[in-house]
Amino acid sequence: MKIAVIKYNAGNIRSVAFALERLQVDYTITDRPEEIQQADKVIFPGVGEASTTMRYLKDHRLDELICSLKQPVLGICLGMQLMCKHSEENDTPCLGIFDETVRLFVPKHHEKVPHMGWNSLTTINDWLPSELKDQFVYFVHSFYVPLSAHTSAQTDYIQAFSSAMRKDNFYAVQFHPEKSGPVGEKVIQAFLQQS
Amino acid sequence: MLTKRIIPCLDIKDGRTVKGVNFLELRDAGDPVALGEMYAQQGADELVFLDISATNEKRKTFVKLVREIAAHVNIPFTVGGGISSIEDVAPLLEAGADKVSINSAAVSNPQLIDDLAKAFGSQFVVLAIDARKVNNQWTVHTHGGSRPTDKKLFTWAKEGQSRGAGEILFTSMDHDGTKSGFAVDPLEKLNQLLQIPVIASGGAGNMNHFLEAFVIGKADAALAATLFHFGEIKIPDLKAYLSNHHLPIRKTI
Description:
Chain A is α/β, with parallel strands linked by helices. In chain A, 26% of the residues lie in helices and 31% in strands. Chain A has helices at 13-22, 33-38, 50-59, 62-68, 78-82, 181-192, and strands spanning 3-6, 27-30, 41-44, 73-76, 86-87, 92-93, 101-104, 115-120, 123-124, 136-141, 143-144, 151-157, 159-167, 170-173. By secondary structure, chain B is an alpha/beta fold. Chain B has one domain (5-244): TIM Barrel, CATH 3.20.20.70. Chain B is 38% helix and 24% strand. Chain B has ten helices and eleven strands. The radius of gyration of chain B is 17 Å and the shape is globular.
């Protein structure tokens, strides 16, 4: 199995690569279109700011490429948010794979923003194994994707939001599976088993 | 529910952990990677590695070490010690560090916080503040707490937040090493004042001290070093204790 990790100006590429190494999975970090297209699975990581990252993707023609992929694609953190239609972060039009708008957390009772730390997956369905219900994963984000028909896991912070999603061959997680201990490893493995 | 974080801190000198770390479970307790892995397995929520090497040459060793830590440890970790520029930080990020902590350099050049936040994102920047009470005012100290400054804890923390710090790591030097408990009053005030998470540090001596830091001090995370390194408190016991006292605590599988 060949895994392509999309190379771009994202902060967590090295961490994602190390997580794959710990799972003894073969991968390449690449921005070459043919290499990405030919991979069995594609991982679209992301830490950073939406508008800068979208501009980078457009400049490198990675935006059209990602949308055209037919194999399983996993968006992580900002990767998941960029798969949505629009982000409130600097009013940024995104890839539009999911028809959602990414929203800024607005505290109700002095909750801290960013949502940073370990929080649980309160509901689980679709592609994620049911044993992951109520397990803890690591989050760092100030923007969130509201619940929708494509939500495959939910987490509560200020309000319930989508911590994992799926539409067709596009999978996405708001948390960092590469930093979420054994639970995160199960999430990556669940994705690698998709076809 | 978002859980309270327990963070062991490891001091590194010339690529090795310092402070009489002694573990029966480990063949080489001086190996930061093995120690970090062990803490991760025990349920630590994050790790902090502070490089206390004196020379730039040894700092290169630290970057190599950060890469090794990132390869083996599957939870988030912060690195710090002697960071004074974007040029110092980029190799650490590339090596796989999740966050960097800055301290003295931010005091002498506050713009560093803005620059790092802009270049790498706020979530990457932990502003570490060492403070002690001087004339009844919490006064910021630098260089391992040896030099007093004219900055005050609360205004400096607030300025750090507005410049783009993603977290505040507050060490009370009056409490550090005393094992008499965290400085819960200034912690509580910091948490009222700030919108970003606050990590409590300095003074942990027993499990109840952590409970106080979270319940009274409203801290988001608590850090300790020797207490964990000497096995005086085991992380699974501490997490069970806090959980039994109805705090949101991560359970591990």
